[in-house]
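protein under study:
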Amino acid sequence: MGFQMQRSWSKKNVDLKLLAEEIGEFFKDNDFEVVVNETKSGYQLLAKGSPNYEINGQISVAVDGKPEEFSIKLELERKQTKLHGILLPTLSEADTYYASSLMPMKRG
C-alpha cells in the first residue's frame, strides 16, 4: 500500500481511450516503462522504472467510467522488503523528503 488519490468528473464527454493514451505518453515522456490495459470499466496503466525519478515501486493509474462520468485513481504501489520473515514497507529518499516536508522535525 502507498500514496493514493482519486478524482471524479461528471457531465463531461471525454474519450477515455484517448485520455488513457495521453496519460501513458506523459509517463513515457518522463522515461517510465508503461503498460496500458483495457478493463471492463475503463483502462489500467502501470508505470515504473524511470531513471529521472526515484520511486520505490510502481505507479498505478485507473481510468474508470463512461465518457460523461468517469474517475481517475492514482496509486503508488510500494515495494516491500523482508526482515526476519516480516514484510516491511520500504521508504525511498523521495518518500522520506515528502514525509519530512509535511511534519516539522526536531533536530539536535
Observations:
- The domain at 4-79 is CATH 3.30.310 (TATA-Binding Protein).
- Strands lie at 4-10, 33-38, 42-48, 57-66, 69-78, 80-83, 86-89.
